[in-house]
Every structure is written in structure tokens, then in C-alpha cells.
Amino acid sequence: MKWDKRKILEIDRKHIWHPFTQMKDYEDRDPPVIVEAQGVKFRTIEGRELYDTISSWWTNVHGHLHPLLNEAIREQLTRLDHVNFSGFTHPYAVEVIERLRRFLPPELSRFFFSDNGSTAVEVALKMAFQFWQNRGFTRRTRFVCLENGYHGDTIGAVSVGGVDLFFKLYKPLTFKTFRAPAPYCYRCPENLDRNFTLEASKPSCNFRCLEELEKIFKEYHEEICAVIVEPRLLAAGGMIVYPAEYLRGLIELARRYEVLTIFDEVATGFGRTGTMFAMEQAGVVPDILCLAKGLTGGVLPMALTVTTERIFQAFYADYLEGKTFYHGHSFTANPICCSVAIANLKLFEDEKPLEKGREVRNYFHRRLVELFSDRPYVGDIRYLGYVGAVELVADRKTKKPFPPEKRVGFRIYMTSLERGLVLRPLGDVIYWFLPLCVTKEEVEEILTQSLAVIEEVVTDLSAG
Ligand SMILES: Cc1ncc(COP(=O)(O)O)c(C=O)c1O
Fold it and tell me: pLDDT tens-digit profile of 427-443?
């Protein structure tokens, strides 16, 4: 189709239903029409540049249109496009695993392919459940999850979610879980006079949130099959950064009560938190790990659910014992997706972006604090690796949020699009989820422009 802005918008408005979007919000405003991208920037149909400050929903790792990733796809298209993965294998899937294993602890040795983060979680939940069933512990059927946790939008993933805004309506469709409090340092009842969470690496508390988790394990462990958590960063729940000690405590409790652990690194994996995987920062290993988004450098959809040998062995039996894992999708281990995942992992190995990016990350954190800490509407500042967030509040002293009807986050989003960047909010939390290729100059421009947008919207609100 030849690009015709008016026509694109007309057909889109008439026929397309966008994700996580109240379509009526676009009744009298147009979404940007993106036609090209390069590095950290998009180009709109009018030729305007727009900083992709959230890495296209937390997927993009090395910047848009990386030549090596593009080349890998092109080459793969001369070899093999697709083959079903039940009863067949191919070298491209094997190479993904061989390369990925170099970055993972050796205990995580069995890999199940699928195609998106929610599915990686569904697979993990079914595996954890069936692990106990296959071994005769039929009462262990329930999951523990965290308030503010998010694991995707399919029904299993929704069941273990803890963000009410997304999940409340679907409750009758979901299974029952135990929800433990989030390690949300800024809003911790023990910590009401605490200012900023910052990187949450120096906790000054007794981890009351872990005590609550232990109460659940203690009373119900014989009914619990697993606990699921996002390591070090509750992403969709508000970019909540929490101390590594919490994760270590969670693992210790789970082991004590013989509960399986599922780490969801769909958002945090592949360098985003400053290490290849966030769990490394706590020095812990789960029974099951979920990966997606950045696995292909954020270019094509692919996911993995990774387990220990112990989990795998609970399924490994003569066919008639009925222990098979009945799960699979049409595009499991698609070779084109594999080819770009291989190129992504090769980039991590050859170019060491995390080592090279240390100075940029430090600069990002320092400038976040310098620019935002004196603003009366900034309640909390938190950061980890390439992720940073400010939580906006109506009253800094009491931490009172802005009234929801003011739609502060949404207004900031809309204004940001006019000012050359994408500030997608999570409620009134404004965040940056940057790709690993970002430079100091880009960080500076993104943060100063962001501050100007936020200041403009908040000032406007106060005036109105
Ligand atoms: C931690 C986490 N898990 C799972 C998902 C779901 O992934 P997908 O959108 O690929 O289904 C997300 C998506 O943002 C996520 O942040």
C-alpha cells in the first residue's frame, strides 16, 4: 500500500482494535503513524523523529534495525522458514540453546520453546502443577504470587497477576491464588517517611513483606505447587525496584517449604537491569525461568521456559504412565526467530554491550536524581540498569496520588508524542526502559525533554 496518512488512519480507526487501549480515546485524536526506525528513534509518516524510550514495549535490545540482526534473518530466509517442532528438530534451535546456556547457571538445563511472554508463563504454571501431579502430590495445586506482579494476559498468567486494574474484571475466569504483599519500598507501611527508592540496593528494613510470604507458606505449603516472581523489578506493576535480599529471602523460604520457584524474566532478561539476567544480582537460581521479549533482540516473537533436570525428570517416563507434557504451539522454535535469537546472543558475546554501557547507566541514574529529586510532584525515583521511573504524586509528604480522573499519566503520554518522545505511563508512574545501545547524549536529551513535558502537564493541571 502506498503511504497515505489519511487513508491509513481512516482504515485503522474503522477496523483495527489496538491492545491495552480504550479505542474511544482516539475518537478525535490520531495515533502517530510510524513508518521507519533506526537505533533509539522512530520516524513518523510526516518525517518527525520520536525517541522510543520504552524500547517498543520492553522488547528492543540493541536498537532498531541492527545490521547484524537484519542480516541473520535475511540469511535464514535462504535456508528454512518453518517446520513443526514435535517430532522434528533443527540446528537453529540447538544453536540458540547452546549459546544461551553460556549465560545461564548450569542447573537450568532443559528448554521449552514457545512464542510470547504470557505463553512462557502458562507453560511454567502447567509444568509446576504437573510436576507435583506426576509425582503423586495431588494436593499441591495452588500458586503464590505478588501484589503488583504481572505475568501476561492469558488466563493462567492473569490468575497469578497482581495488578487489579488489568485483572479485576476477569476474576471469575481465573483460578485462586495466594497473594503476598509486594516489596514496594516507597509505599511500605513500615517506611512511610522514606523518600526515594533509588536503586533499592541498600535496604534499611526487616522485610515485613517476607514475613507475610512466610505466613502463607507455613500455613498452606502442602497445597502450594510454586511461587512466581519477577526478579528485582515488578515491571508492569509500576517499575518497582526491590532489593536483591528480598529475592534471596524468597528462594530460601521456598526451599524450606519445598515450594517450586518460577522467575519471570520476560521483561528483565537480556541486559535490561544491567546484568544479563536480574536473578544474577541476587545469586539465586529458580526451578523454572521464563524468557521472551529480548530473546530475539526484540525483533521477532519467541519465548522459552527453562527448567532444571529435576523438573524434566518428573515428566520423563514410559508413554503409558501418562506423564507427557501436553503443550505446544504452531510456531514453536520457528527457525527465522531462532536465527535472530542466535545473532542477538552472539552480539552479547562479541560486543559486550553491558560492559561498554556501564558509564551510560551511571550517567542515566545520576541525571535522573539531579533532574527530578527537587520537583514537588515527584514522590519516588527508582532505577535499575537501563530502567528508570518517577512516581508522580499530588502530595509528596503524604504520598497521596493524583485523583485518577485527572489522568496525569495519560496526558503526559499524549504531550510527549507531540514533543518527540514516547513516555508511556503505568498509572502515574512515568518510566524509561532504554535499549542497551543508548548513548549519554541520547540519555541527556531524553531526560531533559521528559522533564519539560512532565513539568508542562503538571503546571497545567495546577493552573486548571
Ligand atoms: C514480566 C512479564 N511477564 C510476562 C509478560 C507477557 O509477555 P507478552 O506480552 O509477550 O505476552 C510481560 C509483558 O510485558 C512481562 O512484563
Answer: 999 999 999 999 999 99
